[in-house]
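Subject: mismatched residue count in predicted assembly?

I count 1341 residues in my input, but I want to confirm that the predicted structure covers every chain. Input:
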Amino acid sequence: MAEGENEVRWDGLCSRDSTTRETALETIRQIILRKTECLRSVKETTYRPSDELSNAVSLDELNKLLAHLLMLSKRCPFKDVREKSEFILKSVQELGIRIPRPLGHGPSRFIPEKEILQVGSEDTQMHALFADSFAALGRLDNITLVMVFHPQYLESFLKTQHYLLQMDGPLPLHHRHYIGIMAAARHQCSYLVNLHVNDFLHVGGDPKWLNGLENAPQKLQNLGELNKVLAHRPWLITKEHIERLLKAEEHSWSLAELVHAVVLLTHYHSLASFTFGCGISPEIHCDGGHTFRPPSVSNYCICDITNGNHNVDEMQVNSAGNISVSDSFFEVEALMEKMRQLQECRDEEEASQEEMASRFEMEKRESMFVFSSDDDEATPARDVSRHFEDTSYGYKDFSRHGMHVPTFRVQDYCWEDHGYSLVNRLYPDVGQLIDEKFHIAYNLTYNTMAMHKDVDTSMLRRAIWNYIHCMFGIRYDDYDYGEINQLLDRSFKVYIKTVVCTPEKVTKRMYDSFWRQFKHSEKVHVNLLLIEARMQAELLYALRAITRYMT
Amino acid sequence: MEKMSRVTTALGSSALTGRTMHCHLDAPANAISVCRDAAQVVVAGRSIFKIFAIEEEQFVEKLNLRVGRKPSLNLSCADVVWHQMDENLLATAATNGVVVTWNLGRPSRNKQDQLFTEHKRTVNKVCFHPTEAHVLLSGSQDGFMKCFDLRRKDSVSTFSGQSESVRDVQFSIRDYFTFASTFENGNVQLWDIRRPDRCERMFTAHNGPVFCCDWHPEDRGWLATGGRDKMVKVWDMTTHRAKEMHCVQTIASVARVKWRPECRHHLATCSMMVDHNIYVWDVRRPFVPAAMFEEHRDVTTGIAWRHPHDPSFLLSGSKDSTLCQHLFRDASQPVERANPEGLCYGLFGDLAFAAKESLVAAESGRKPYTGDRRHPIFFKRKLDPAEPFSGLASSALSVFEIEPGGGSMSWFVDTAERYALTGRPLAELCDHNAKVARELGRNQVAQTWTMLRIIYCSPGLVPSANLNHSVGKGSSCGLPLMNSFNLKDMASGLGSETRLDRSKGDTRSDTVLLDSSATLITNEDNEETEGSDVPTDYLLGDVEGEEDELYPLDPEHVHPEEPEYVLPQEAFPLRHEIVDTPSGPEHLQDKADSPHVSGSEADAASLAPVDSSFSLLSISHALYDSRLPPDFFSVLVCDMLHFYAEQGDVQMAVSVLIVLGERVRKDIDEQTQEHWYTSYIDLLQRFRLWNVSNQVVKLSTSQAVSCLNQASTTLHVNCSHCKRPMSSRGWVCDRCHRCASMCAVCHHVVKGLFVWCQGCSHGGHLQHIMKWLEGSSHCPAGCGHLCEYS
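Triage response: the counts match. Full output below for your records.
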């Protein structure tokens, strides 16, 4: 009885109707105050040891609620909710209960909070986006707040994600979140894992599964292998992988389910790249996003908020990265000059065919050795690792041994002609959504570069896109890979390579040391290119294997 | 005009001959093109560029144009075209953006003529002007089209599509200056070659990329386009706005489209993914292809009609590295395989029936069933006299009205609802189903179930633990059929004495399910006594032989037995005794001649739990079964399933298939199973037995069937208070903030199955309510209502 009444329902807050929100908030307020009262009275009156445990439990519960309220007070797109939740928090504080405060520095650790759009100061278009996102998920996550630098893309991104997770599809809802967890865990991305653990439980997933992949149904366990290969060496996917999944007696996947799973896996692999690439902070209401300690000991334990990034070293001010400002100023100029040159001289010097082919091979080979210097072997310490097996399997060990990546020619199997048709056939409408997302990401431009306006950046964008595909062994016949070397300098390549292949190793120093004169929004733009190119590369390999299986 | 007549005469003098044939290439082909003389074909791909002579019996390689030591990307062809005026002239589009022309008249080994490197991206298509000797057009991924004059070193003019990549360019055959181009964003543009500044006309033809287009060879202004949206559209460009004349829906994205010569409405298509066949469509008949070529094992990448005035020879190249010549007369015609018969029930049992006219005519002439069948109340024949393929597939439609009340299918519904398909050991399932069938008066079916039980239930297959579980805690099995065991059923099923028994039985709890299992047991006992009277071989002999022989026996067997159902009261103690002995098969073997031999030790029995005794029943069957492996009968059982399916009782076939599972599945071919499943599911859905049909879908092992409930998996719920759809979550309403359904027992929100009493509208979790009702029949909400659940 009492339990049912005291259960807090956050759903009402997602409504677009302000009165609905108000009533919902009012009930929340009453519940919280009641709980607080009850806790206080217990504290004051008796100190029976038997109560201790239940007391701790209820305190824990209350703290969770307060953390959620804190999140709302900062991140809800609706002003009334923000104000009211803050008010509730205050009144709780007045009752002598410790209230949480946000930790960290805004949605991203790489980008100063003031650069990022504040909730509440968005324009109408963005507000609509926020409200949509909030209505669908009951929260406005940090990824959204960072991506809103590029609202056009964000819209398509949210639409796709919503469709993948919540709309019609062959997989049950909790499976979808679980696959998301599996994919994110491959890159030890505790941020995404935490988010989806909550969602997973919310849609009725079995908490036992969260103890590790071996507790999940056999069917999902079978997916582990594909997840592993897809995340680190997609070119090794063969039709045998597919066959093993589709023909496993009662644990077999149907083609439609498999395509859904593959899209989810690739989506979350690349989203993990984004999370690390932009240094997304933990959500306010999740572990590590808030603290109940008073601000005086603000610097306690950095590692708690690092989200798995090794950003301890970024605190030690980087001495090597201290290149003078004038130097970096010329960086942009030089880049633009190079682009101009390439544009002009393209027709004149015509590299021979062998030359072109060798340039691709060279770039591919070189991309394997482009790596950050700090090569410390970090085993995943967090509990995230239990969601996948074979932790040693990564991108790195093959690059060390200089394994050969076979060449995949886009002209023979490309997303527009082949991949799209296959996805849309087996998982209707999703092909269309992903196709749109790729297009927006690839064609997104504001014709600016740092402080310059009216610049045609298509060449630069294409170089980035093709460089990522090149790392995966995907070759465009009609591209001169020499351009990549001209346009992308080493520190940028290091960053790209790390974000795409081993995102968990990205540090703030890497983020800061490329394109120093560029705006943060442009760096986020780069990240969007990276994740979409990565997703497409993985999809191409997986879909090609499925096609081969089908023929 | 002039040119055409010339060609026709040329054809007249040497008519084409040949056969359906293919030859292996070394590498996948990307495109093919035919020489003007229809005797040579060029094949181009990433690593192949060859000319073949088409001879009577075979393809003969004539020339390899890929010369030079090192493979160059210039030779990696996305497209190839042979000039239709000059048989020495070819052009290729390379994946690296180069356009190359080739002159076969060159004396050296390398026939490469000119190289145009103006495009920045892959060139998707090249096209020669149909009448002009030196004009070449190219369309590229970079969004530009370029027109080259082969006498000059670079392009004459550049056309910018202002949008995305160009996928195809085609000169109009009739209008000297016009060409069409198709784009990745779904647009089609018409250009005048003299005006590179802007296009003459632009319209959106498809949703998604338009991969190909083709001008009609005769009808001025007809353009066919094919796109990723799986459509082929025919446009009339002569009018002010491009008008869509025809639309053909294919099953995969359309990679190429080519009008068939001399057949005004025919065109050939091939697809880019998944589907490997080449189809020839009559655009007026967009649902069934007129012809189909199925030779290729991988996607077809290039098609070309061999001669511009001969409709029967089609050449094709494919990713599977073969070059084929298809003869129209060898094509398979789906129309022939299509069923021109159709049958459909109306809402009130009316029957519409379409069949070949000839059949209908003959039938009505004979009128074999005129006795009880009505004449069609409505007869319709829609036939267009101009229709060219009336002979192939045309049908007449007749509609019959059915007398009300005739042909009741209530037995089907009853059976479907009451059959148990899973969740219990095989023996119980069989017995249960047999009982259901018997109660519905379907003795043959009942007998079949009983026999299946005898055949398949050897001790190994029915572990006793399993049995105990299901009998002891029957309610935990969560049977969908629980509700069918109400007391009334039982009463009618059993003699009055059985009821007496039940009241006497001290060890039995009062759950309904146990009662039913008690019946099952008496049933089994019955069999046994039967077995001991009749020589066992006799019984087996029947099973082996014609099943029909057994049926005549049925009535005699069943009826005298009826009272005996109650009889084996003493059989219980008998079984109990066996419990205590370690039940090895050898041990039982000793007693094989007399299963009742142990009757003397009856006293010990009463101590043994009732449950475990049941398992022994089936063990004793082993006495007969152990001689023959269950596999022995599988052929027979399959025959039996086919028999039922043929009879129209697909219900029986599917139920047995599910119940027996692995035991017979492998002996029946996948397709037949799938067919049975789909027809049964279809029937169930017609009778709105959604639960049963879903259960069947779930239990089916066929891929295609289990896919059925993976589509459209979202359930939309409306709030019971404000009647608005609940969008975010299924159990709480956004608007009125009430949980839609609370469980009256545990006071939690019900997120899954919700069951409620129709009298007081209180309810809750299915399990909770079931448990509650075991203890009390009052409403758990405390409203005082005596709840009734069906």
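Chain A touches chain B through 50 residues (CB under 8 Å). Marking this ticket as 'not a bug'.
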